[in-house]
Amino acid sequence: MAEYHEKIIIKGVEIHLVDPPQLDVDWVGMQEPLTQLLASWTDDGDDPPMQPRILGKPGVGKTSLAIKAARMMGQDLYITQCTVDTKPEDLIISPVIADNGKIRYVASPLVSAMVRGGICLLDEGNRMSEKSWASIAPLLDMRRSVYSIVAGVEIKASPNFRVCVTMNEDASTFEVPEYIHSRLQPAIHMDFPTRDEEFRILRGKLDGPSDELLREVVNILQESHARDEDLSIRDGLNIARYAYRLLKHKAAANEREAIDQSHLQITGDNRASLDGPTLV
Ligand SMILES: Nc1ncnc2c1ncn2[C@@H]1O[C@H](COP(=O)(O)OP(=O)(O)OP(=O)(O)O)[C@@H](O)[C@H]1O
Ligand SMILES: [Mg+2]
Fold first, then answer.
1. Would you list the domain boundaries of the chain?
2. pLDDT tens-digit map of 222-241
3. For 6-189, CATH number?
4. What gap in Å lies between CA 28 and CA 71, rounded to an integer?
5. pLDDT value of residue 276
6. What is the pTM of this model?
7. Which ligand is nearest to the CA of 171?
8. If you measure from the C-alpha of residue 137 to the centroid of ligand 2, how many angstroms do you get, rounded to a whole number?
9. Atom 29 (ligand 1): residue with closest C-alpha?
């Protein structure tokens, strides 16, 4: 069973907190959404921090943006992955059977961040049902608290607590209800990076592939963005890293062949080998 490092007592009820993951990202360019996120989180005297929603296509860098901003604030980032199955207690406090057969109350990443004054990212929030959103509605207004039905306690957020939500623009599972939507403000839109930024992101993450190979992959990405298709930086990273491996294992004769093969296998796009851009 996992070890929970810290316990707190609220009204006589023992609650185990979880620790944040250790995350970092070498953020490249894209200063506008970063500044907007930091601005929305500012504690403006009597006015509490805002609760932005970060919008953009899959793989555009939404989660990484939150990681970078939390780092810049010097706070830990806790992440709750939202799914269609996320229940209110997953968001607040879950009962777990401990080794001694007794019930142990385990705080979610959200509640752990509230108690410790961290930042919580509700990742892919638009996958979550209205019932789950309703359970954290009081957290998103002046009350800044949640009530755990399971443990029978109210938990108040530290003044340093911040929250943001990411939403994939094209993969909405539920309509987020209007009263929640109006609490998740402002909307921070993320577009695909520029050609130069995309190259620098790939270069920063991959040591092996040559500059030429990476430039060619960036061409593929930029052409896809221009056609409003959905190849993302993550796809670009995978195309480049697999092409490099094919070359290293002599499974492709040259970079052109390796990129075409990799493009085909990563994206399943049959056109990759037919009309891909040529190496310069
Ligand atoms: N500006 C950037 N600087 C550095 N790395 C970036 C940047 N933008 C994206 N990346 C990298 O691109 C990849 C995808 O980013 P990330 O996972 O943050 O996207 P996402 O929008 O959260 O995706 P999803 O919608 O699938 O959750 C990661 O490897 C990330 O580090
Ligand atoms: Mg993400």
1. 6-189, 195-275
2. 999 888 887 899 999 999 99
3. 3.40.50.300
4. 14
5. 44
6. 0.88
7. 1
8. 22
9. 234
